[in-house]
Every structure is written in structure tokens, then in C-alpha cells.
Amino acid sequence: xxxxxxxxxxxxxxxxxxxxxxxxxxxxxxxxxxxxxxxxxxxxxxxxxxxxxxxxxxxxxxxxxxxxxxxxxxxxxxxxxxxxxxxxxxxxxxxxxxxxxxxxxxxxxxxxxxxxxxxxxxxxxxxxxxxxxxxxxxxxxxxxxxxxxxxxxxxxxxxxxxxxxxxxxxxxxxxxxxxxxxxxxxxxxxxxxxxxxxxxxxxxxxxxxxxxxxxxxxxxxxxxxxxxxxxxxxxxxxxxxxxxxxxxxxxxxxxxxxxxxxxxxxxxxxxxxxxxxxxxxxxxxxxxxxxxxxxxxxxxxxxxxxxxxxxxxxxxxxxxxxxxxxxxxxxxxxxxxxxxxxxxxxxxxxxxxxxxxxxxxxxxxxxxxxxxxxx
Length: 375
Ligand SMILES: Cc1cc2nc3c(=O)[nH]c(=O)nc-3n(C[C@H](O)[C@H](O)[C@H](O)COP(=O)(O)OP(=O)(O)OC[C@H]3O[C@@H](n4cnc5c(N)ncnc54)[C@H](O)[C@@H]3O)c2cc1C
Description:
Layout: E1 3-8, H1 12-25, E2 29-35, E3 39-40, H2 45-50, H3 56-59, E4 61-62, E5 71-75, E6 78-82, E7 87-90, E8 94-96, E9 99-102, E10 107-109, H4 116-119, E11 121-122, H5 126-135, E12 142-148, H6 158-172, E13 179-184, H7 195-208, E14 210-213, E15 218-222, E16 227-230, E17 235-237, E18 240-244, E19 246-248, H8 251-254, E20 278-280, H9 293-312, E21 322-330, E22 333-340, E23 347-354, H10 356-373
Parallel strand pairs: 1-2, 1-9, 2-5, 9-20, 11-18, 12-13, 12-18, 13-14
Antiparallel strand pairs: 3-4, 6-7, 7-8, 10-19, 15-16, 16-17, 21-22, 22-23
Helix pairs in contact: 1-9, 6-7
The structure holds flavin-adenine dinucleotide.
The site of flavin-adenine dinucleotide (FAD) has 35 residues, from helix 1, strand 2, helix 9 and strand 21.
């Protein structure tokens, strides 16, 4: 009998899980992969769009390219999840599963930060990156403020990358000396599990005259005075605000009864929710790893092993929360941090930024394109 798997969300987690199960189980698999969009894009491609290096079309990868044994992709909006019955309702149909995997990622709540919608910008959504592509060329001089508004947030290196890439962008336009760049972060150092990575980033900030403001969040923007109000009540003036908005689970997840304290709790070794044969992987859960694609992928591998073991026998290795993230340092250089989160206190290893790692990062993208989309 085929194993009936329903995977909600075709992002890093859902794509990796579907690919592995298709390769390993093929004709024994009846997997439905559901996403509201027609295409996938890597989180880091938002920088390419925002700084005008690539068009939105160039970074989109169409889901219609998914042709895999045992996998059917459906472009539908998930409107209800019943984790007890393992039944999913969409805007077009209803699906019942033997195994249900929730990989719906994190949405943004822009309105949570007063003033952000009216007087700021965010580069975490695709729409936000596309808007910035129009806004950035109109910026001539003044204070750029990159600010995190809430925790947790996706890809903890991304605010640092945004500050460094903004520096390069302003240098290229010949207006860097007319501008100031500041970065407001909720941590004491940019990448808490890796002091070496943090040291390298802080050195890069200081070499480029970027002010790093640690242990703070931006609570609101006073748009009439163009001032950001931080969580200690202090104020920072800005002319261009590049924000990281508050993250939250998609509404359909919040309505499903699966969340506690805003996210889906899971067993840290198995990614199982409290409901039988219902898993949650990636940004949507609160497993204790950062919200990043590489961790969603790792979680997908762990869940795939369990589904395969359930169907065929055998054992699945426990999830360890390991991932390596590439970090854009600007000046055509990329660094790398490898982190392990669940074996004890989080630890990280830094590989110095280089042009070689630019190629590694490109390979990271192209191997996923090939594995997930056959391109
Ligand atoms: C600027 C930026 C840079 C980043 N850089 C990196 C990086 O270098 N490395 C890295 O590992 N990570 C990076 N990330 C983070 C990474 O993009 C996310 O952590 C990752 O995509 C999470 O994977 P996921 O599968 O949990 O969710 P997602 O990839 O977000 O996928 C969730 C899917 O669910 C779908 N969905 C949501 N609600 C519904 C619904 N109701 N019905 C149907 N479908 C729905 C969405 O359309 C989406 O396709 C970056 C993020 C940003 C914003």
C-alpha cells in the first residue's frame, strides 16, 4: 500500500522532504505537496532583487518544473488544518493523509511595528524587496538604519548582510560619504553561537564605518520626525529605514490549534507534534534552531527517515540542529558559519570570507535547483 503523505508548504523544508521521499520511495509514495504560490525563491535572492542585481523573474523557480515519481504539486491556498483527522482543506479541495507535514514557514506582521508600513521599508518579503528596488535609487544622502523589530527572525546573519551590502551599493553610486549606516540588533554580538563569525562581522562593520547597536530592538517609527524608537526608549534618527518585521505563523496554522506561544512545539529529536503522525518542520516550529532554510532542510531529512522507516522498517537518526549559513560580507566575498544547536550549548565554526566561498554559495543554490526542480 502506498504511504499517503500531505506536505503543506513548498519552501526549503517541503521541497527537500518531497525530493528525498520521491527518490527513496518512488512508486510506494502518494505525496501531495501544496503551496499557494506558483514559484519558489531562495531567501537570499531578495538581496539580488532589492539591490537591482537581478529581476524578480530571474530568481523565481516555477513549481511546474517539479516532475517526481510519487509527488503531485498543487497550487492551492490551505484554509484549514485538522491535525486530529490529518485532514487539510484548501480553496479548491480536501486532502486526507497517513502522515501530515506542516512546512508553512513564517509570515510577517508589518502592522505590529507602528510606522513601519507608512514610513519604513522591509526587505524580508518579496514584495518588500521589489519595492526597495524602486526606493533605493532615489536615496541620495542621509542616515540608513537597518533594524530588527522583533524576535525570532529568519536568517540571523541577514541584517548584518543587509548593512554590508548597503555599504557596497552606496559606494558604487559614489554617495557613501554622504551617508551613515547603523544596524540595530537584539543580540550582544551579530551571531551569538559563533564568536569568531561575530568578530569578523564587527571588524567588517568598523572598516566600513557601520555603527553596530547591540541588544536593542526597534519598537516603532515616528514617521513625522523620522525617528526610530528603540525598546529602551532611546531614539535614532533615520532617512531610510530597512526593517526586519515581526514574524508569526501563517493564520491557518494559528487557527489549527497546533501552536503554543506563537509557534508549533515539536519533539526536538523527531520533529513530531503532539498529534499522531503530524510533523512540523522549518520556520513554523519552535524546535530551538534559527529560522533558516538549511535547518528546514535538516528537519526534512529527519522526518523523511522516519517516514521511510515506518514504511519499510529500520531506524531514523535523531535531529541534531546542524546547519551552515553563507554570509555576504560585501566586496564580492562570502563567509560561512557552521552551527550545531541541539547537542548542547550552540556552537559555531567560522570560515573566513573569500571569493572562493562565493562559488560555494552559488553551488548551494544550483544543487537545490537540480535536486528539487530538475533544472
Ligand atoms: C533576506 C533573507 C535572506 C535569507 N538567507 C538565507 C540563507 O542564506 N540561508 C538560509 O538557509 N536561509 C536564509 N533565509 C531564510 C530562509 O529563506 C527561510 O528560513 C526558509 O525559507 C524556511 O523554510 P521553510 O520551508 O520553513 O519555509 P518557507 O521556505 O518560507 O516555505 C513556506 C511555504 O509555505 C507557503 N504557504 C504559507 N502559507 C500558506 C497557505 N496558507 N497555503 C499554501 N501555502 C502556504 C509559502 O508560500 C511558502 O512557499 C533568508 C531569509 C531572508 C528573508
